[in-house]
Automatic annotation (TrEMBL):
SMART domains: EAL. Residues 8-258 form the EAL domain. This is EAL domain-containing protein. SUPFAM superfamilies: EAL domain-like. PANTHER family: CYCLIC DI-GMP PHOSPHODIESTERASE PDED-RELATED, CYCLIC DI-GMP PHOSPHODIESTERASE PDEF. Pfam families: EAL.
């Protein structure tokens, strides 16, 4: 995205103020079991209630927050908000939080997570961190050590947007994860393209052999969901099954499944 110099300055100033003014909030998008069609976990997605521009999505501001060192503060807000909110759910499903590679730069992430779990009384086993493959572009021993330390405490790690990085298989080899999220660009073509279908089937087989679970992102049609179910992709996320929604709506949704027993 092309953003002019002045727009970037304005965005940076706005972002700084918005952290002070608590203008960020989280929507929650459920992830479903493709067989039972029931929610198994929930992803927290950050939004910004901009004073004049309305609700702004993360693609418009995460990169700027990263480049002007606001991402650590924003990331801390997201982590605390997601864990506190998930404590109120009628069913104790895991909550997934997106982590920017830049949050691993200072070395403070393991301590932040530990502190957050302590303060919110949220169990480590219910927390999932989603990292994109770009986390490995700046691969340093320190990055991997931090992620391994976090995982050793029981927090799960998932590779987000899987298949879009430069060397997806290398990342899988060099690093232990609990799950992978197959990028929406694969899901989009899964029914029409035999090539894409073959790739996703192979990813699923590989993941199964490595004892890693698979989520398909961006599921928008019944045909896609049926394909995933028939090809043994255990989990699915997308507008077809549930949009990102407010905490209140999410709670109602979880309660409605819960009451089904
Ligand atoms: P992501 O983690 O891969 O999240 C999936 C994105 O796809 C979300 O966009 C979600 O709303 C959207 N999506 C879900 N289902 C569908 C579907 O069926 N069709 C389509 N077309 N889109 C779907 P969103 O909320 O705009 O987030 C975009 C990206 O911003 C996320 O991609 C994630 O990388 C980043 N992000 C979101 N929240 C945070 C956060 O708290 N911290 C950090 N560092 N990054 C975040
Ligand atoms: Mg994600
Ligand atoms: Mg993704
Ligand atoms: Mg994405």
């Amino acid at each position: 995205m092309e953003v002019s110099y002045f727009n970037r300055i304005r965005l940076r100033d706005d972002l700084t103020k918005s952290l002070e003014r608590n203008e960020f909030f989280l929507d929650y998008q459920p992830i479903f079991d493709t067989l039972t069609r029931r929610p198994i976990s929930v992803e927290a997605l950050v939004r910004w209630q901009h004073p004049t521009d309305g609700v702004v999505g993360p693609n418009a501001f995460i990169a700027t927050a990263e480049s002007c060192d606001l991402i650590e503060e924003l990331g801390a807000y997201v982590l605390y908000a997601a864990c506190s909110e998930a404590m109120k759910w009628p069913v104790p499903l895991p909550v997934a939080v997106n982590i920017s590679p830049k949050q691993l730069r200072s070395g403070r992430l393991p301590a932040l997570i530990q502190e957050c779990l302590l303060q919110t009384s949220f169990p480590a086993e219910r927390l999932i961190l989603e990292v994109t493959e770009s986390v490995f572009l700046a691969e340093t021993t320190r990055t991997l050590t931090q992620l391994a330390a976090i995982r050793a405490r029981g927090v799960r790690l998932v590779l987000d947007d899987f298949g879009t990085g430069y060397s997806s298989l290398t990342y899988l080899r060099g690093f232990d994860v609990d799950g992978i999220k197959v990028d929406a660009s694969f899901t989009r073509d899964i029914v029409q393209s035999q090539k894409v279908a073959a790739i996703v089937r192979t990813i699923a087989r590989l993941a199964c052999d490595m004892n890693v679970y698979v989520v398909a992102e961006g599921v928008e049609t019944d045909e896609q969901l049926s394909w995933l179910e028939q090809n043994g992709i255990a989990f699915a996320q997308g507008y077809l099954l549930g949009r990102p929604q407010s905490p209140t709506k999410l709670q109602a949704l979880l309660a409605s499944y819960h009451s089904l027993g």
